[in-house]
Amino acid sequence: MADIRRTIIAAVARNGTIGREGDMPWRLSSDLKRFKTLTLGKPVVMGRRTYDSIGKPLPGRPNVVISRQAAIDHSDISMAHSLAEALEAAERLALQTGAGEICIIGGGQIYAQAIDLADRMYITHVEADLDGDAFFPAIDPGTWQAGEVVAVPAGERDSYPTRFVVYERRRA
Q1: According to the 3-state scheme, what is the secondary structure of 155-170?
Q2: Whole-prediction pTM value?
Q3: Which runs of consecutive H residues, i.e. helices, occur in the chain?
Q4: pLDDT per residue over 121-165, tens digit each?
Q5: Where does the signal peptide begin and end (predicted)?
Q6: So where are the chain's domains?
Q7: Burial of 69 by CB count in 10 Å (0-12 exposed, 13-18 middle, 19+ buried)?
Q8: Is the Cβ–Cβ distance between 144 and 121 less than 8 Å?
Q9: Residue 1: what pLDDT?
């Protein structure tokens, strides 16, 4: 299943913060629209805490939730007990639906495990240092090549300006 791209999608503050008390420490309407565009029709992989913070399956995409204990009894959720199991399930779903990509959408523990397995990252760099309790791993420039960069000023429904960067894994 090597032809299915593994993509990480995250919004990250300058100091690495991605979450606080089960929520995001910002409001970024423009980023949520981008997130929806990037993920619609593609399997999304997330940890149980990320699922709990969203509160329901994301519509229009197969949802794979990783949890060591709890099962979520919902017809639109596939459960997995590890990242490896979740990636296998998501890749099967991508093949069934014709999606060429799976999207890994959080949280911090999942990103830390997935960063070495991903091919591409769509990172929204939030132009602020924010307090939090969930963090994104450091992006190693020896491993990741920043490509397209788009500066996004804060819109009327955004807490902060952002920079949207597409990173590709460097090939050896």
Answers
A1: CCCECCCEEEEEEEEC
A2: 0.95
A3: 29-39, 48-54, 83-97, 108-114
A4: 999 999 999 999 999 999 999 999 999 999 999 999 999 999 999
A5: none
A6: 3-167
A7: exposed
A8: yes
A9: 47
